[in-house]
Amino acid sequence: MSNLAIGLLGTAGLFSGILLGVNVMVVLGLVGAIGLAALVGFSASTALLSTVFFDTTHSFHFSVIPLFLLMGFFAMRAGLGEDLFEAASKWLGGLRGGLAISTTLGAAAFGAASGSSVGTATVFTKLALPQMLDRGYDKSLASASIAIAGTLAVMIPPSALVVVYGILTDSSIGALLIAGFIPGILFALILCLAIWIRVRITPSLAPIDTRRFTLKEKVLSLRMAGPLVLVIVAIVSGLYLGIFTPTEAGGIGAMLTFLLALVRHRGFRGIAMRETLMETMRTTAMIFAILMCALLFSKFLALSGMTNAVGGFLIGLEVNRWVIVALVALIYLALGMLMDAPALLAITLPITHPVMMDLGFDPVWFGIFVVLLVEIGAVTPPVGINCFVVQSASGGRVQLEDVFRGLMPFMLAGLFMLMILCVFPQIALFLPERMK
């Protein structure tokens, strides 16, 4: 059997395992290990296994992942999502659709600190959904706006998913983190615009909040939300100016959110330090395991010739390169409905990244494009993991079909954002090209 045939057989086995419900990490590792043994023999494959595991766990660059995760868990334990939503609702709640807009902006800021799409969707479902429903908001608009707002968590730095992309493609992590800032803010504003247009067309979806707050109350609402925003700005500015590395940024962010948690709870009791550290360790171990198995699978694909064969086929097509971009986008949107983001990147990047580089695209731009694609896939029916999270965290107040029914305007907004990135790539590249 030829090497390419072994590669095709291994790829078929990978997707068969995923469709059968086998853990993605397990399938990646098994296919990679067995495939390498079939290609180069048992002894050589075990040597490669040890090399991959060592390179993954000892590299200084990988330490940024647990630090960003720790920052996010401290932000969740501190209840900073509640502070952000309260501040945003007091400033914008008087607008039609203001609570939904407040949720989007609050989720953007909290998601930047947490870096977790699912975590952000969970927090704001518990915070914002009851308030919107109690004030007469349509179930579909309220729940769908929270599901899509959760995706902002992986766009605005610091983002663990962007770090995963950088590791898998050997790209500059600092440049990637900075690159997501402007697209993330722009996408948040586009989602707010989508809400505004939706409620202007159908005002009954979002009654105006009759509560009124004084300027003093509005300013006081920023006492905890403001510092968190300043932490995010400080991290982005430090990376941009070259004051510290991504790993140092993660450490500083974790320390500052820890201090905010201490202030908010007036001590250690409300932080649940042991549980926070254990959750950080479990999540880090999961991501590291996926990365190790993904790198193993990537070596298998490269040695089998699959990467070159697929890349050569796509590049050999006599079509405009944007047709291939559209094809890649469809693949990510489809697969994004079926698996979580780190696993999806692990499976696809060994093939899609070389193709995009051969077509002349910037690796940093492609990273932001792919991360946005993956997160849009996370809300795409019929699976859409964020939609299930919102329904589950709602306590039975909304059904899954309610979430799906309200997604169309936000899906269009996501596709519009993708088009903007394609037409104006400098949106993602402006800051990285000017980093010190």
Task: Summarize the model shown.
The chain is mainly α. The protein is built from 23 helices and no strands.
**Overall mean confidence score, pLDDT:** 84
Number of strands: 0
Q: Major beta sheet, specifics?
A: none
Task: Spell out the helices and strands N to C.
Answer: HHHHHHHHHHHHHHHHHHHHHHH
Low-confidence stretches: none
Total helical segments: 23
Shape type:
globular
C-alpha-based Rg, rounded: 22 Å
> What kind of oligomer do you see?
single chain
Q: How would you classify the helix and strand content by structural class? A: mainly alpha
The fraction of residues in strands falls at under 5%
What separation lies between the terminal Cα atoms? Answer: 51 Å
Helix content: over 70%
Structure description:
There is one protein chain. With 436 residues, this protein is mainly alpha-helical. It has helices spanning 3-19, 24-40, 42-58, 64-77, 80-92, 98-114, 117-134, 139-149, 160-169, 173-179, 181-201, 215-220, 222-241, 246-265, 273-304, 306-316, 321-336, 341-358, 363-377, 385-393, 400-405, 408-423, 426-429. The model has no long low-confidence stretch (mean pLDDT 84).
